[in-house]
Amino acid sequence: MLALIARVVSWLRMLAPGVPRYSLYGEPEHGVDDRFIHVETIARRSAAADWTIRPHSHGELEHLLIVERGGGEMLVDGDRVPFARSILAVPAGVAHGFRFDCATEGHIVTVAGPLLRRIATSYSLVRRLITAARVLPLPEEVELRPMLDALMAETASTRPLNAMAGEALLQLLLVSACRLVPEAEGQCSAPRRPALLVSRYRLQIDRHLRDGWSIAHHASALGTSIARLRAACVEVTGAPPIQLMQNRLIAEARRQLAYTDRTVAEVGYDLGFGDPAYFSRFFRRCTGVSPGGWRMDQSSEKDSASIAV
Questions:
Q1: Region 175-190: what's the mean pLDDT?
Q2: Is 85:138 a contact under the CB 8 Å cutoff?
Q3: Nearest 5°: phi and psi at 153?
Q4: Poorest-confidence range of 26-30, 130-134, 175-179?
Q5: CA-CA distance, 134 to 64, in Å (whole number)?
Q6: Residue 110: pLDDT band by 50, 70, 90 thresholds?
Q7: Which residues pair with 108 in a beta bridge?
Q8: Would you kindly state where each structural domain of the chain is located, as residue ranges?
Q9: What is the mean pLDDT of residues 245-256?
Q10: Which of 58, 97, 152, 194 could be 232's S-S partner, Cβ–Cβ 3.0 to 4.6 Å?
Q11: Are 255 and 278 in contact (CB under 8 A)?
Q12: What residues contact residue 114 under an 8 Å CB cut-off, 6+ apart?
């Protein structure tokens, strides 16, 4: 009985108001590269905290937790969802926490929202996977450890094309998760309306990134009002709709500047800016540096890394 009371008190503390927003858990929120993938064991971040991850959220990071042994409870927007051997999907913006059984084994895969949504634009099952927090029971015959070990190694390496290898392994992991969705659909936690609306808005931004849609156009296509869209975005991410759209444009601009040979003007045209000068002003206003200056900084960093290796 005392153990039960202690557990209830602990959960009540976890439900206290004021959900912080982090990058990785416990780390101050900051921007990440739109190809960001991070992999670590469940034990690495939770064992030192008594196997408890207090409620928090991420503005632009999505989680896949692969629980191979053990289990626990996931707190999702105030609901407690038990799990054992499972894949847990947690979309960006959803308040979540965990209480793991002692010595639970598994991995936490954290992915930049733009990267995951870029994949989702081509595959409806991936879109469904990332629009709600889900507990997907993992059959014993599905063995993901070699894939996860390889993904962790690639994300930590500096070998050529490590980002490409990491994205390929991530897609294989998504295939494994999505194949479990139809069987476990009834065991998924339903998303709150604001979180679902923001998730749909982000996917819509990705689909129409180059079309120059206004916030009013987005709201109309989503079947909501500008005011409701704004309220949902601020509640879930802490930012208004226009900032989410601008962040996505900047993320795509950075990706093209870093990984393609397109000129600054060509990048601007591709993103719907008819005037290269306006694109440069927009980029500088959002980042504090010109597109050309940002590209030079990235080239310098890559050269330094090559020398270090």
A1: 66
A2: yes
A3: -65, -40
A4: 26-30
A5: 10
A6: very high
A7: 40, 65
A8: 20-187, 193-308
A9: 87
A10: 194
A11: no
A12: 34, 60, 206, 248, 251, 252
CA distance 200 to 158: 35
Computed over every residue of the chain, the mean pLDDT equals 81
- Pick left, alpha or beta for residue 77 (phi over 0 → left; psi -120 to 50 → alpha; otherwise beta): left
Q: Please report where in the chains the tokens 């993904």 appear, as a residue.
A: 151
User: Could you identify the residue written with the tokens 């996860």?
Assistant: 148
**Strands 86-90 vs 134-137: parallel, antiparallel or unpaired:** antiparallel
Q: Which of the four pLDDT bands, split at 50, 70 and 90, describes residue 268?
A: very high
Residue 89, judged by CB atoms within 10 A of its CB (0-12, 13-18, 19+), counts as buried
Cβ atoms of residues 250 and 283 within 8 Å: yes
Do residues 280 and 291 touch, judged by C-beta distance below 8 A? yes
Q: Is there a contact between 114 and 84 (Cβ–Cβ < 8 Å)?
A: no
Question: Ramachandran region of residue 173, left (φ > 0), alpha (ψ -120 to 50) or beta?
Answer: alpha
CATH number of 20-187: 2.60.120.280
CATH 3.20.20.140 matches 193-308: no
Distance, CA of 236 to CA of 92 (rounded, Å): 9
Out of 42-51, 195-204, 213-222, 263-272, which region has the weakest mean confidence (pLDDT)? 195-204
pLDDT at 187 over 80: no
Give the position of tokens 């949902």. Answer: 232
